[in-house]
Design brief:
globular, binds zinc ion, 2 domains, about 70% helix
Length: about 260
């Protein structure tokens, strides 16, 4: 297969996976089955016909409205479908068509689910973290971007680091500042990316959270002391770490030394 064909295939495949991730994000917090029933409109329960369930295209054809009750379909559905396709393409350009590609694509899909469920519910579900361990076992089998030692040190250092931040935050602010879910999520990212890239991912997470906070503050979209989900920032850091980690690390070390 030539490059164009593989690219087209991954985009189509990515859009379809993204459509499934939407179902997961919507149903997992409600403890509903992700397999049955078929997708339906959340307003009128109209069951989507096949042509209404084509990623992105159906949304555009329906002009973002349910065909039955004409209520708005959330913009988030096509966005997550497109996002998933882009993430899988990034994994492809990073790893080529290899076992690494499939393993880390699975990881990226999990990041998408964890991120949006955290945004919706402020919770990082244990079941999803355990699913992430499937990727974590990979370095043990001598595959992936890390040795098993780097992974274990990564899990320990990030887990402990975030646990300390949680404890110190609680002491200073006299309330929960970082959820325990974030601590476990950070440990998982350390395990999957190893301690070096794990540290890069954490730094990006804190930096991006701070930048967004400062950007939103003047618009009063956010208040000091307000609780925000940290999972999305960790996911963002993990994504950049996975795709460009070694380059970011090298750039930073050149800058400092
Ligand atoms: Zn409807």
């Amino acid at each position: 297969m030539n490059l164009e064909m593989v690219t087209v295939f991954i985009v189509v495949f990515g859009l379809m996976i993204g459509s499934f991730l939407n179902v997961c994000i919507y149903r997992i917090p409600k403890k509903e089955s992700i397999v049955i029933p078929r997708s339906h409109c959340p307003h009128c329960n109209h069951q989507l016909r096949v042509w209404e369930n084509i990623p992105v295209i159906s949304f555009l054809m329906l002009k973002g409205l349910c065909s039955s009750c004409k209520n708005k379909i959330s913009f988030r559905y096509p966005i997550i479908e497109l996002l998933t396709a882009i993430l899988l393409l990034m994994a492809y350009f990073r790893f080529g068509l290899s076992v690494d590609f499939f393993i880390y694509s699975f990881f990226l899909c999990l990041l998408v689910i964890i991120t949006f469920i955290d945004i919706d519910t402020m919770e990082i579900l244990n079941g999803l973290l355990i699913l992430g361990l499937i990727v974590g076992v990979y370095p043990v089998l001598e595959g992936g971007i890390n040795s098993i030692y780097q992974s274990l040190i990564g899990a320990l250092s990030l887990g402990l680091g975030f646990f300390l931040i949680r404890v110190i935050g609680q002491l200073l602010l006299k309330k929960e500042s970082m959820g325990f879910g974030d601590v476990k999520y950070a440990a998982l990212i350390g395990l999957l990316l190893g301690w070096k890239i794990g540290l890069v991912a954490s730094a990006i997470a804190f930096l991006s959270a701070a930048i967004l906070f400062l950007m939103l503050l003047p618009f009063r979209k956010i208040a000091i002391g307000q609780r925000i989900p940290f999972g999305p920032f960790l996911s963002f850091g993990a994504l950049l770490g996975l795709i460009w980690g070694p380059h970011i690390l090298e750039w930073y070390l050149n800058l400092v030394f």
